[in-house]
Amino acid sequence: MNSAATNLKIGEVAAQAHVNLQTIRYYERENLLPKPARLPSGYRVYTPDAVRRVRFIKRAQELGFTLAEIRELLALRVDRKRDRSDVRQIAAEKVADIERKILSLTAMKNALVGLTDHCSGHGPASECPILESLDSEEELRWRQA
């Protein structure tokens, strides 16, 4: 274990990584962050690398990577035998996934715009074409796009 001067408590890791304590515990449960050593008092002690790892995880999440994908990226980060093309492939797959989501969101938006165009905004809500469309047995158009 590192010297006491470089050991960090969970609160210090959380503060330096700009996350809350529950995030650190969650990452531990999800095996994204190694279980820390414990002092005789029971306090968890982390190395400074824990802060770097938590920041890595948060940045990857901000880019839309799932926890499973982040696990794979973390494994690639330490595996000297793996090539950058593996990392590039994961990133390219994420870009394709984001593009699919953009298409889906655009179709959803267009369907909602169409529905709101058919609603005058006046009269009883029970006769609103938006609610009628949602209650219809027909598929909404955006799902077919």
Characterise the protein shown here:
By secondary structure, the chain is an all-alpha fold. The protein contains 7 helices and 2 strands, in the order H-H-E-E-H-H-H-H-H. A two-stranded antiparallel ribbon has the order 1-2.
Keywords:
145 residues, mainly alpha, 7 helices, 2 strands
This entry's quaternary arrangement is single chain
In sequence order, what are the helices and strands, one letter per element?
HHEEHHHHH
Principal-axes geometry comes out as elongated
Radius of gyration: 24 Å
- Global structural class: mainly alpha
Low-pLDDT windows of residues: none
How many angstroms does the end-to-end distance come to? Answer: 56 Å
The pLDDT mean sits at 90
The fraction of residues assigned to DSSP E strands is under 5%
Largest sheet: 2 strands, antiparallel
Helical content class: 55-70%
Strand element count: 2
Number of helices: 7
Spatial sequence of strands, sheet with the most strands = 1-2
What is the element layout, followed by pairings?
Elements: H1 10-17, H2 21-29, E1 37-38, E2 44-45, H3 48-62, H4 67-78, H5 84-117, H6 129-135, H7 141-144
Antiparallel strand pairs: 1-2
Helix pairs in contact: 1-3
Brief synopsis:
The protein has seven helices and two strands, in the order ααββααααα.
